[in-house]
Write a structure and sequence with these properties.
Elements lengths: L1 H9 L7 E4 L2 H10 L2 E5 L6 H4 L5 E3 L2 H15 L1
Parallel strand pairs: 1-2, 2-3
């Protein structure tokens, strides 16, 4: 519910959202909300804990930046 409220307050569509998270809960939240996500393996969970999700996983901040830039180009 909180994510939908943020999307609404920003006046955007969920198709324009990339959720960044570091846990299985974040992966489930993104999946249940129907938004794109990038999960990071350098936070709360290890990469192996996040591999069940169909999202790309960033191993460091540089990876995260590159993945987000790639998504930005797709949306432009």
């Amino acid at each position: 519910e909180g994510l939908f409220k943020i999307i609404d307050e920003l006046g955007t569509d969920k198709e324009m959202v990339t959720y960044v998270g570091d846990s299985r809960v974040d992966g489930e939240l993104a999946r249940n909300a129907g938004v794109d996500a990038v999960l990071v393996s350098y936070g709360y969970c290890k990469k192996s804990d996040l591999s069940d999700f169909n999202y790309e996983i960033a191993d460091d901040c540089r990876d995260l930046g590159l993945l987000l830039k790639r998504r930005e180009r797709k949306l432009s």
